Each structure stands twice: as structure tokens, then as C-alpha cells.
UniProtKB/TrEMBL annotation:
The chain crosses the membrane at residues 75-93, 129-154. This is Uncharacterized protein. It comes from Streptomyces solincola. Keywords: Membrane, Transmembrane, Transmembrane helix. It comes from the Bacteria.
Length: 180
């Protein structure tokens, strides 16, 4: 059992015990007793905490995986932004046509923008998949701009950039199941 799961189970057990103890206190008093209202309010408060905690269990269990995805996404996009900057510099160093900047500058700008995306619980796996797929795009960009492969692959590179960009601009706000 993972550390996170163990912590969640321990906290859940603590909250359940508190609710049980509060219930026992309520049952000790008669409904007409002033202490009954005090103990009942404590029971309701403890129960509210338990319900709120139970509501957050899926997010708590998914958090370690989300953090891993966040690291992968962040460093992938940062690395690809560095590759984009290096390719732009190589255009000038290798005295290639400045027209390559039409392809490389948007790639660089897109990867820099991707560095700042949020990785939430619902879409962390999609973001991770997009970030890993981005490495293919960067490789293709490097091979094309360094004239290792034919310039006809520019269309493919633009297509890949659009696919990579669509994973960054995912605006689906509908409810999704949280995956572990």
C-alpha cells in the first residue's frame, strides 16, 4: 500500500472515530437537555468534516501521479523550448536562410508558452502524453531545419505542431472520472 493511501486511510479512520465518539456523546443526553444541542452541533461538525474529506479522497489518491505528470510536462516543455532556441541560433550560426525563422520562431514561442501550463488532476495523463509526444515534434523540427530530411516534411511538422498545440489548449471543463 502506498504512503498516500495509508495516510488517507488513517485520516479517514480518525474522522470516523470522531463521528462515532460524538454520536455516543449525543446518545448520552436527552433531547430536552441543553447539552444535547451542544453535542449534536459537534456531531454535525464532525460529520461535515468527514463528508468533506471523503469528497476529496479521489484527488488525494491521484496527487502523487499528478505531481509526476507535472514534472514530466514542465521539463519536457522547457527542454523543447531550449531546443527551439538552439535551432534559431543555428540558423544564424550555420548561415541558413532566414526563412527558417518562419517555422522556428512559432515553434519556440509555442514551447515557451507550454512551459506555463497547469497540470490538473483530471487531465494530467493527457498533458503527460502531449509532452512526451512533443519530443517527436522537436526532433522533426530539428531534422527539417538542419536540412537532414526533405523540406516537404514542413507540412508534417506544422501538423504535429497543431496536434501538440491542441493538447496545450484543451478547454474541456466537463466532469471526468479521476484516474489513479
Amino acid at each position: 500500500m502506498g504512503n498516500t493511501e495509508q495516510q488517507v486511510e488513517e485520516r479517514l479512520a480518525q474522522l470516523q472515530q470522531k463521528v462515532g465518539a460524538r454520536r455516543a456523546e449525543v446518545l448520552k443526553h436527552d433531547v430536552d437537555d441543553d447539552q444535547f444541542a451542544v453535542e449534536y452541533a459537534r456531531l454535525v461538525n464532525s460529520t461535515s468534516k468527514l463528508v468533506e474529506f471523503e469528497r476529496t479522497i479521489p484527488e488525494r489518491l491521484a496527487e502523487p501521479e499528478r505531481k509526476r505528470s507535472e514534472r514530466i510536462v514542465t521539463w519536457s516543455w522547457r527542454g523543447e523550448a531550449a531546443v527551439g532556441a538552439a535551432l534559431i541560433a543555428l540558423v544564424f550560426i550555420l548561415d541558413h536562410s532566414v526563412w527558417w525563422l518562419v517555422l522556428l520562431v512559432p515553434h519556440f514561442a509555442g514551447t515557451v508558452a507550454g512551459c506555463f501550463q497547469k497540470v490538473d488532476v483530471e487531465q494530467h495523463r493527457d498533458r503527460r502524453f502531449g509532452a512526451v509526444g512533443l519530443h517527436v515534434v522537436a526532433l522533426l523540427m530539428a531534422l527539417i531545419s538542419l536540412s537532414v530530411i526533405s523540406r516537404w516534411f514542413i507540412a508534417a511538422a506544422i501538423g504535429w505542431m497543431l496536434v501538440g498545440g491542441s493538447t496545450v489548449d484543451s478547454t474541456d471543463t466537463g466532469p471526468k472520472e479521476v484516474r489513479r
